[in-house]
Amino acid sequence: MANESEKELAARASCEQVKNGMVVGLGTGSTAVFVVQTLAEKVRQGLKIRGIPTSVNTEKLATSLGIQMITLADVQEIDVTIDGADEFDPGLQLTKGGGGALLREKIVASASKLMVVIADSSKQVAVLGKFPLPVEVIKFAQPLVSKKIAAMGAKVVLRKTATGEVFITDEGNYILDSNFSQIPDPPALARKLSDTPGVVEHGLFINLAGMVLMGKGNQVVEIRRP
What we know:
By secondary structure, the protein is α/β, with parallel strands linked by helices. It has helices at residues 2-14, 30-44, 56-64, 102-110, 142-151, 186-194; strands spanning 23-26, 50-53, 68-69, 78-83, 87-88, 94-95, 112-120, 133-137, 155-158, 174-179, 199-202, 204-205, 211-216, 219-224. It folds into two domains: 2-124 and 206-216, 3-Layer(aba) Sandwich (Rossmann fold), CATH 3.40.50.1360; 133-201, 2-Layer Sandwich (Alpha-Beta Plaits), CATH 3.30.70. The strands form three sheets. It has a seven-stranded mixed sheet. Strands 9-10-8-11 form a four-stranded antiparallel sheet.
């Protein structure tokens, strides 16, 4: 419950970055749900924003709460994106994709003037790698890519749902959860994965986060990228 409280604190603080008339990237996952709910409260009080969702689930939630949704066909630049992370290191490099939306999340983050990451205190690490790194791959290439990532030093598991079926992303791909234990050089691994045929996207977010708002106890700690 402490983590949930910290997430909600960080989410509410992050919404202070959203001003009237902005285009807002809406993240995916348990922490991002708090953001959507908080922004919906502000919309009911008169805030005018347009949202670009990073997943089908986020789009459904935001629409149901009265936030206007648009797409990248409507705008190509986003004022601020607020999203969670599975881990962040001292340089604000991130591991993302626990919710399975890493591809759209990275596209939206890359189109944003500012990416604000919200997290509870358990997500702060000295070195990335504690959380298995999600790698999105096309179905055809999955066996081959699994072997190549294992050769890079990871234990690779094909993600499945709670009912035992293979998890399918919104874009129709598979996810390989790749446990490296430690990722001392995230940019180097990111390049290596991006250069692997069959990899659609990976969960290393390099130089995309402008700041992290971390709930810690009953406070919010702001950390900016060095």
